[in-house]
Amino acid sequence: MGEPKDGPAQPPQADDVTLNICGEVCPYTLVRTLLALEEMKPGDVLRVVLDYPPALNNVPKSLRTYGHEILAIDEAGPGRWTVVVRKSARPQ
Question: Residue 22 catalytic?
């Protein structure tokens, strides 16, 4: 998928959190992602690993509407992708 429109991909940081939601389908992919972000501080980075193709479009699109910044969307292997998101300071 490559680089999103929000800006260049960021290298992994030591304090990044990874959420593996492989096996989940919509809307649970978004719900679990939002719950994980609720536990994080603004500016923290969440890496979401998913394998449900519709979620590859739906999760980043929805996260943008909540004001979060999509840093990267990358293929993580056959049928798996990683969405890297930075939590916004805007309340959900």
Answer: no
